[in-house]
Amino acid sequence: MYELTVNNVSKSFAKKVALNNVSLKVRKGSIFGLIGPNGAGKSTLTSILATLTLPNEGTVEISNLDVVSKVNKVRKKVGVTFQQTTVFSTGTAWENLWIAGKMYGMSTTKIMERGEHLLKEFDLFQASNDLVDTYSGGMKRKLDIAISLLHTPDILLLDEPTAGLDPESRTTLWQIVTKISQDEGTTIFVTTHYLEELNHLATEIALINNGKILDIGTPKELINKLAADQIEIHYRKLDLANIHKIEAYISNLKEIVRHEIKPTVLTIMTSHGQQILSELLKYLIQSNVEIKFSELKQATLNDVYLANFNEKEAEL
Ligand SMILES: Nc1ncnc2c1ncn2[C@@H]1O[C@H](COP(=O)(O)OP(=O)(O)O)[C@@H](O)[C@H]1O
Ligand SMILES: [Mg+2]
Fold this sequence. Notes:
By secondary structure, the chain is of the alpha/beta class. The protein has helices spanning about 40-50, 70-75, 95-105, 110-120, 135-150, 165-185, 220-225, 240-250, 275-285, 300-315, and strands spanning about 1-15, 15-25, 30-35, 55-60, 65, 80, 155-160, 185-190, 205-210, 210-215, 230-235, 255-260, 265-270, 290-295. The protein has 2 domains: about 1-225, Rossmann fold (3-Layer(aba) Sandwich); about 230-300, Alpha-Beta Plaits (2-Layer Sandwich). The model has no long low-confidence stretch (mean pLDDT about 95). It binds adenosine-5'-diphosphate and magnesium ion.
């Protein structure tokens, strides 16, 4: 059921604690996002999962194999792309795939077959005999990821894959990666600080800061926890009796965390913006309140980020 389990992992460099008792589980075939500011420990964890760094404490299992004692088996199951590109810019895409394939111990036929399939998926086939030096940043990143998928890994680790890419390349990259994950059942573990791109993509998200996991949940759970959807309803001036009546109605709604009712405007903070807005509008119309307009500002993953990281950074 789980492709990856991280149990109480800690890692220090000299006196610097990079990871502090990190635990998380990633379901097979899911897209898991690890989010946090610079220095949070994202790359250190990715590097441990990729068997390139050893943890000081704790254990990691990939496909039920311990990453420290079963390193060779684990490497066959893992593909990794770090933020720094690892492609040779003096070679073509094919030459890069070739070298990687031989390092994975793949046969020539297999490299050709899988390479062609991936080059086509990543829309690089036409440029596959051009020097990588002539590629755009987005194309290089796509080639990096294609190479890390060459040996058909069970889990793909992506460390800030979209950093420095323009919005269009980011969207394209995600479309391709999601398709491959769906087609091949590949589990995706991704670190990023572009949160919004994970909103409709990630099955689960972990928030990390100073090497510690702050929270884990689906994007919706994390957003709902903030209860930061904001509703404003403007109406023709109410009399006092109506204000009291509406006040009584609102006080009975569980999901509302804060509200303020004025003669011409009602403001509300809630975890369920859309649902509360439509209930309220229905109620107000039934109560013959003349609505002028309403606004709903739904909380986003960016609000989750600001709530978790800005305050925490301010505490330091
Ligand atoms: N090889 C290293 N030597 C010393 N300190 C390191 C090393 N790698 C990472 N660190 C430190 O560990 C912390 C976590 O770094 P990192 O995992 O790169 O964070 P992130 O990827 O979230 O930006 C940082 O304070 C960083 O300076
Ligand atoms: Mg990093």
